[in-house]
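Notebook B, p. 112. Complex prediction, attempt 2.
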Amino acid sequence: MKTSITRRTFLKGSLAATGLTIAVSVSPFGTRLLNASQSKDALKRFKPNVWYEVSPNNVVTVFIGASEMGQGTHTALATVIADELGTEWKQVRVKQGPAAKEFHNPLLGEQLTVASAAVRGFYELCRKAAAAGRAMLVKAAAASWGVPESECEAIKGVVEHKKSSRKSTYGELCLAAAKLEVPKEAPLKKESEFRYIGKPTARMDIPEKVKGAAVYGLDISVPGMHYAVLARPPAYGAKPVSKDEKAAMNVKGVIKVVEMPMGIAVCAKSLDAAWKGRKALDVKWDKGVLPQLDNDFIEKTMMAELDKPGSKAMENGDAKKALEGAAKKVKSTYFVPYVAHALMEPINCTASVGKDRCDVWAPTQGQTGAQALASEISGFPPDKVNIHTTYMGCGLGRRAAPDFVVEAVIASKVTGKPVKVVWTREEDIQYDLFRAATCQRIEGGLDGQGQLIGWSHKAVAGSIFKLINPKAIQNGVDIMSLWGLVDFPGSPDGNRILYEIPNLYLEFLISELPVPVTAWRSVQNGPNAFVTECFIDEMAHAAGKDPLEFRLPLLKESKGAQRVLKVAAEKAGWGKPLPKGQGRGIAQHHCFGTDVAAVAEVSVNEKDGHVKVNRVVVAVDCGLAVNPLNVEGQIQGGVINALSTALKEEVRFANGGVKSANFEDYGILRMSEVPEIEVHLVKGNEKMGGIGEPGVPPTAPAVANAFFNATGVRIRRIPLTSNAVLEALKKT
Amino acid sequence: MISLNVNGKIYKANVPEDASLLWVLRDHLKLTGTKYSCGIGECGACTVHVDGKAERSCGMTAGEVKGKKITTIEGLPENNPVKRAWIKEQVVQCGYCQPGIIMQVAALLSETPTPSADQIIGKMDDVICRCGTYPRIKKGIKTAVQMARKEGK
């Protein structure tokens, strides 16, 4: 996570289309834009860096390297560029940028749209890149009129010299500006001069999406394109024992059967033929590495793992001693199951390994990884591997993994044809890389005054780094799996338990279950916040204190958390009585640089066990919100995803593999289950935070805490299904 | 060879009678606005109008719709109140489910121009949006209803 941008040259590329090579580097003094060479082509438009170009027809085209999966990054970054460049919004078009070093996110060190990092990562850079262009346009105008630059003003896509009443549009000035040297540093606008940043802007991708014209990965069509589908193992680690390749090849249209690490691919001229070929292939598999794996087995295994020694992940003071001397102790065990991404657009990818280049059309969140793997498989150097990022039908972290790219590039290389790999919905769910299940036990201690003095915490979860960067697992500790509980070394965000607990001990053990896991909107902040925010509530109850009043004094150093808790509580009417059978719960979490607090109100039907969430009030402090309208939408979306996990989602396993297969047995939240959601923006944090993910973590614990408030019964496991609720109520 | 009337145009597709309407639209007619997501009629991403009624194209065959009028998202006029309301209320996030959802809403409003909350839920619980745009879908429906009423449509 930690990537220093200081002194690092991160934009340096050859813009073949313009023949203009520009290098941009970030120095401690800001962006330096170097104009390396110019050609005749460069004179057809003004493109001082990779981010945008101005054409004589007065159109400004912005190129964004980050992926657009619905989170609104393309529009947000385009408004930043438009504002600082001084154009009219209606002049601006946005295009997806290619895979290129120029588009590596300074916060991440590669081109990867994750960690709610796109807008906050590129904000400063886009401003500097645009300010340089504005300065050049002003300079070009001043020179043509023979007036001082200081007397000219650039605004609304026009440079104006008021004294002589002269003005020229950017389109008119762009060719002259293109001949100028890119300034090493250009002055930035004042915040008060912003016309778009911080104000609601309609998203640019919406009209084409409403038309049905937006192109997603599954919509890609390439001349001569073939299709591939894979027969995949039904159980983890299962190996094929037999297959009928001849029968598959006899299906009209099937051209090849290819073994891959993930399964056996059937390549055909049409999708239908590929599916028929897969059926005819009739692969028989062995039982896999853990045929007894099912939901009971998972939960029992992880509970047992809790009793095995783990690795120390964090220690402040002496939790053991504090707990020994505590006046009151609470010990609880929590479980959060595996959940699937269940993206509306099933996983897919199209690749073409040609004679001298490789092209990949991918709904990917990770261009750098996709390019590196495609390069390795195709044998072409990265500069001959073109990653065409498509729109994607939701991402949630799943599309940062490059497995589908590997499948398509192998299939294309082996067949010599452009190939689209298509996953069915069933494959999408059954071969998902899930949000890691976790089992956690906490023991907390209060002194005689009800002060929280000790906290001993043991967590078991699958390793997120195992798939993407196993070297990052150090001494048995995976900080991705512990995100939200412990800090990343050197991370600027603050990812730890924020509560100021004098004696805190945290131990972690990687679960050995063979279920593959990866990031799922907010990574493990979601499950980890569920555990800590419910347990804090338990401690408040044990102390006989109001859950809000108990939290605030433990967050003296976390002003953002205090702010959002207070605003959410106030807006929700915290403390006001609710009818019988209803309850209110609160929770907060800080992640990706943003503080969010949620208050949930629920009704519990004690007869049928049905939990209905009536209202969720959210307060968000993400610092400057580039597009508040979009922030609201992202927070609503995060809350809804989290409600879905709180009320419904749990992957079912059987016979060593995944049993859930489609939306009929893997239900996600539908409209009737969605409560009224209020989002309140609180601008307190100085640094900009992310907004894609932080809506998730506080939501599920707020619901579980509301359930306790309504019933007096604590449920330490999600989802709160009717059966789970009836069982919990029966026990007490 | 099957002849299909889609968006007021006659297409000829060299597919068997039992070919899935969804994949015929997408792969043969290149009308990719209609989306594949679940294939079992659970999510509504593939919703089209067949003689004005919202239907899941994943569950229909090309043979079944011979002689019927099919409208896909591409054929729903740009000035349809639902399309305009979706832009006005900024409903869309990833957008993958939205063509189907728009078709679902457009059919609902053509049958029931001022639907009650229950009538809306009754139809909209048949579709899924993973991004969680439901609050804005509700807003979008309200706005579309108002637009249509104002314009006497």
